[in-house]
Amino acid sequence: MIEPREQLTLDLAGLFAGGNVLAANIEWIALAPHLDAEIKIDASELTALGTMGETSWTSIGLLAQRVASAVIESLLRKGLLIGDGPHHMGIRERDEAVRAGHWRPLSAVAHYFSRWSDAGSGEDVHVTRHRTLTDLVREHGAPPSHLTERVEKDQRQTLSQPRRSALDTLFRRRATCRNFDTGSLLGEADFSDLLHRVLGCHDVVEVIPGAMGLKKSNPSGGGLHPLEAYLLVRGVEGFASGLYHYHVAEHALEPLTPLDADAAYELANRFVAGQDFFSNAHVLVVLTARFRRTFWKYRNHPKAYRAIVLEAGHVSQNLYLAATELGLGAYVTAAINEIDIEKALGLDPLQESPIVVCGFGPRADRRTMLEFDPLGTVWDENGRRR
């Protein structure tokens, strides 16, 4: 995909002439998921790319009849043209991996180039944790209205009073936790119960010979359940700190990387982009997507990637409710360093990549970090846990 980007520079001549102070210059940026970086191209390279197909191989001799040799060589060096020689093998294999994965081009670009690395390690512009709501209103004005109203009030049809159940109580107690009890351990029984209810499977069935399916607690596009759970355990009875993979069928943890307490906290903080109120959780759950599990059925499909992202939302809500029922705190965040997580877990982002990070554990007795609890179901007026 080619993106035009406007670069603004100070125009002193225009300033002294009483005209525009800023001069605009357009740069062309190529976004290719088989490459590790954005690639700047010039107008001649842009024109050349527009004359070539993406499927059939073309001899360099024929191509040189309509594109300057210098442009061809530049595009080959940048990896936007792919040669069949041995020195292009690495780039060619990455390009073939994108094609073989049945990615929709727009989805591949959106996924690959929205991933973060090292965000939040300092005062990062991507993370707004140090800017209050007052700061944001002062900078950007009031937010859009909290309500949408499509007809006049006298045209609305009032519904009957809702009947109450235990689920209502659970929903009212559900709140994002930013205050975890770092001095305690999460009990093994609560840890086990929550993992099985939220992430485990209730059954494994052979739908047709050679095609296995899972029955889980959340809906999934095509019933394929492409999400995996990797755990960063920091404070659970009976489990050493470190990285684990959760085996959904056997309800078991697969140890990956042992970590001491300091290393586990540092990695947690990196995972959640410096949001230290989230890195204090006793367990961080990285929900990754095995894209080919979904794309195997929905090949080059415009909705396949969206279905995967929606599924992560279903799982995170189940985690909130299961944690709330057990009296635990929980959260979900999309402000994560996907690239750092991929490196820690040894993942290829075109095959498997993080979607969100969730966390859970015992709440602290006192609130030190602000939480959104307007019903007062978690904290009393003095900031003590109810």
UniProtKB/TrEMBL annotation:
<feature type="region of interest" description="Disordered">
    <location>
        <begin position="140"/>
        <end position="162"/>
    </location>
</feature>
<dbReference type="InterPro" id="IPR052544">
    <property type="entry name" value="Bacteriocin_Proc_Enz"/>
</dbReference>
<dbReference type="InterPro" id="IPR000415">
    <property type="entry name" value="Nitroreductase-like"/>
</dbReference>
<dbReference type="Pfam" id="PF00881">
    <property type="entry name" value="Nitroreductase"/>
</dbReference>
<feature type="compositionally biased region" description="Basic and acidic residues">
    <location>
        <begin position="140"/>
        <end position="156"/>
    </location>
</feature>
<feature type="domain" description="Nitroreductase">
    <location>
        <begin position="172"/>
        <end position="361"/>
    </location>
</feature>
<dbReference type="InterPro" id="IPR030965">
    <property type="entry name" value="SagB-rel_DH_2"/>
</dbReference>
<protein>
    <submittedName>
        <fullName>Peptide maturation dehydrogenase</fullName>
    </submittedName>
</protein>
<dbReference type="InterPro" id="IPR029479">
    <property type="entry name" value="Nitroreductase"/>
</dbReference>
<dbReference type="InterPro" id="IPR020051">
    <property type="entry name" value="SagB-type_dehydrogenase"/>
</dbReference>
